[in-house]
Amino acid sequence: MIYVAEVIVDVSAYPVDRAFDYLIPEQWADLIEKGCRVKVPFGPRNVLGFVVDLKNETAVPPEKIKPIAQILDIEPVLTEEMLQLAKWLKHETICYEIDALQVMLPSALRAKYEKIVHLQVVQNDLLPELQPYFAKSPKVNYKLFEKDHLLRELKLAAIHGHVTIENSVKQQGAVKHIRKVAITQDTALLEGIFTAISNRAQKQKLLVQWMQGHPGGIFTPDEINEQAQVTSAVLQAVVERGAATYIQEEVYRDPFTKDVARTDFLRLTDEQTVALQQITTAMEEKRAETFLLHGVTGSGKTEVYLQAIQHTLAEGKEAIVLVPEISLTPQMTERFRSRFGEQVAVMHSGLSVGEKYDEWRKIQQGKVKVVVGARSAAFAPFTNVGLIILDEEHESTYKQEDSPRYHARDVAIWRGEFYSCPVILGSATPALESFARAKKGVYTLLTLQQRAMRQALPTVEIVDMREQLKKGNRSMFSEPLVDAIRVRLEKKEQIVLFLNRRGYSSFVMCRDCGTVVQCPNCDISLTYHRSNEKLKCHYCGYDEYVPHECPQCQSEHIRFFGTGTQKVEEELYKIFPEARVLRMDVDTTKHKGAHEEILEAFGEGKADVLLGTQMIAKGLDFPNITLVGVLSADTSLHLPDYRAAEKTFQLMTQVSGRAGRHDKPGEVFIQTYTPEHYAIELSKEQLYTPFYEREMHTRRQAGYPPYYYLALIQVSHEDVMIAAEYAGRAAEWLRANLSFKVSIIGPTTASISRLQNRYRYQCLIKYKIEPNLIPVLLQLIKLYRSDWIKKGIILTIDLDPSMI
Ligand code: ADP
Ligand code: ZN
Ligand code: ZN
């Protein structure tokens, strides 16, 4: 009998993306499972690989097949489901399977970290071979067992829960441990110890008797002292007799900084009840149904999520809640924690590598039942999923821009099918694609038209900034907005000012010759940062000091232009010196917990004005906010993105939704230079459907999604000629191989024509039905990987591009 593993190796430059067969050395035959990581020889070196299948035969001749060099996991890190999902992702997004496998794991498992075996029971309860290793400490380096060929025994111990194997992620702030007492499972041993203790040591006898009632139990010394009514000295004596042992239990680094008070379920409104009921029916009937929960801001979508999750937990299943990274505010996560307490894990980019690993482990070990997280939490390693929720499903952060270029929505729906469970997509402004699918009946539409507490939506006034200019007002604050701010300051109500900075930055420009200071590596203007008087490239990180004279004409009249949050803050203080302003942007939220501190201070009324960028558009729910001002609505309208109008409408609706969520009515001012644009005009009434219809019309005319599909092929190289040449070859290849119904635009220069010193060209493919597309693209990739790559070309394919 031979044992063969199919392994996906971590070699991204190989022309063919497939699994390779490796021989499993006989002594590891029952150790290696699907989903384990291994080291295998590939070319001249050993590389990381994932075991994706096991079999008893191979087409590789015996003299050619190589054995696996090292086992990295004796417990699989990926489930069968994840292996299937990776195959699907590879096909769906045209990526290397290894990329799809890696994206599912926390980075602590991607890099090489030490592994530590933690003893969880009394040493005596272990297999005899393992016992000596734990004589000195309950924590032993995994390498020792590997060296001594004891992995099989170790695996057995892990399966029985006698040990756990943890990646030790070193970091600032040592890992916390607490000392606990593990009682032996061996009742005969306890009996023996009990008899051996003389009757004069009554206390010890009592304690052992108590332990006989809790074999295998783990307690803190305090708990034992209290429950068994004995002192530490007695416990010590009993431990010395071998009835129990002290262990160090690792305390999970708790990413929550404070305790959260419990909240109760609210009585649902009629609309909420109808929505919830359809969702729970799908759960009970085990249907993989996708719901689009379309509810105006403040309509109580989150309450529907919470109660649907409650239902899932009652069924003994788990729930995944995805929220956009920027709305992963403490306020949002607290709402989940306040209902489900310790059962909630949170995953977002603000956590350290160690914290992320801890949260992942809690999920993997089934210690939590709910995860609230950003995009990558779509891969949360639960194994009995009962509900998946995507809040703000229209958000562009759900799409990953690097390989694998997946959309969390697609992953959610795939997993929903896998577990035959419902998926809820929630939004006040659904993505056009989603709403179109709901209209076609692919998704089930659930609508919440009223705000939960029947509050009116805020009144929205559009302010034409051109008129302001004509009147001689050159400030970034229009008269109506200034008046409204003044009123709020007098009434001690709160104000949110939103600066729409998507694709917009303050740059430095020469007023004499018009030169804008650009990044030397990228075709992008540098952004001005006042705090250190520097110019910075937001794409490659390059920075330099602000020049004193124009690099082009040596004029001294070079200064910064455009509106940053700092500039707004200064101007605001000029008009309202008494206003207390909190600024929230990339600069003020650098340190961990800053976000939280700012919001907390604002919630406690320590400021009158919260001023910020995109970051404040979401999730804010404070009763005292009665005024929202949007300083510049149109900056996102003029982006090279077919979704520009949609994004602007979504943003305006989101921001407006921050006002008047409780008893006090809200008012919104939107300042713009293009008040006649439908995305701005329609955001006044916050009417989604008219916007949807208007935008669909535009998309149909221009041949964009959801009427057509897009694929973007990008080619880059340091040499502009080579980049152009190969982009041309790609376009030629596509034209020759795709049907005439497909339109291929390009090659053209990319909207950012140079990035990190590489020139970028692209071809856009627009199609309706093209069964040949994937095979043709795979052929193109093969061509690229086997030849072009050697010339330094980088070719990427995005099947659902957002920026084009
Ligand atoms: P959304 O997620 O749709 O923006 P939320 O769930 O945040 O809406 O609800 C808005 C506000 O209404 C919150 O303060 C919430 O506590 C409250 N709310 C939601 N549902 C109810 C309900 N059934 N009864 C009373 N208040 C509710
Ligand atoms: Zn100049
Ligand atoms: Zn740059």
Describe this structure in words.
The protein has 804 residues and is an alpha/beta fold. It folds into seven domains: 4-106, PriA, 3(prime) DNA-binding domain (GIY-YIG endonuclease); 113-169; 178-250, no CATH class; 270-448, Rossmann fold (3-Layer(aba) Sandwich); 459-503 and 566-699, Rossmann fold (3-Layer(aba) Sandwich); 507-561, no CATH class; 709-798, Alpha-Beta Plaits (2-Layer Sandwich). 32% of the residues lie in helices and 23% in strands. It contains 24 helices and 33 strands. The strands form eight sheets. It has a seven-stranded parallel β-sheet with strand order 14-15-13-16-17-12-18, sandwiched between helices. Strands 19-29-28-20-27-26 form a six-stranded parallel β-sheet, with helices on both faces. Strand 14 (344-347), helix 13 and strand 15 form a beta-alpha-beta unit. It is globular, with a radius of gyration of 30 Å. The mean pLDDT is 87. The structure holds adenosine-5'-diphosphate (ADP) and zinc ion (ZN) (2 copies). Adenosine-5'-diphosphate is lined by residues 266-269, 272, 295, 297-303, 452-453, 621, 661. One zinc ion (ZN) binds at residues 510, 512-513, 515, 550, 552-553, 555.
Strand and helix layout:
Layout (H helix, E strand, L loop, with lengths): L3 E6 L10 E4 L13 E6 L2 E11 L14 E2 L8 H14 L3 H7 L3 H4 L3 E6 L19 E3 H6 L3 H9 L3 E6 L8 E7 L3 H10 L5 H11 L5 E2 L1 H7 L4 H9 L3 E7 L19 H15 L5 E6 L5 H14 L3 E5 L7 H11 L3 E4 L5 H12 L5 E4 L11 E7 L16 H12 L3 E5 L4 H9 L3 E5 L10 E6 H6 L8 H13 L2 E5 L8 E4 L16 E3 L4 E3 L6 E3 L12 E4 L3 H11 L5 E4 L9 H10 L5 E4 L12 E6 L13 H13 L10 E6 L5 H4 L6 H15 L6 E9 L2 H18 L5 E13 L2 E10 L5 H14 L7 E5 L6
Parallel strand pairs: 12-17, 12-18, 13-15, 13-16, 14-15, 16-17, 19-29, 20-27, 20-28, 26-27, 28-29
Antiparallel strand pairs: 1-2, 1-4, 3-4, 3-5, 6-7, 6-8, 9-10, 9-11, 21-25, 22-23, 23-24, 30-32, 30-33, 31-32
Helix pairs in contact: 1-2, 6-7, 7-9, 10-11
The chain binds adenosine-5'-diphosphate and zinc ion (2 copies).
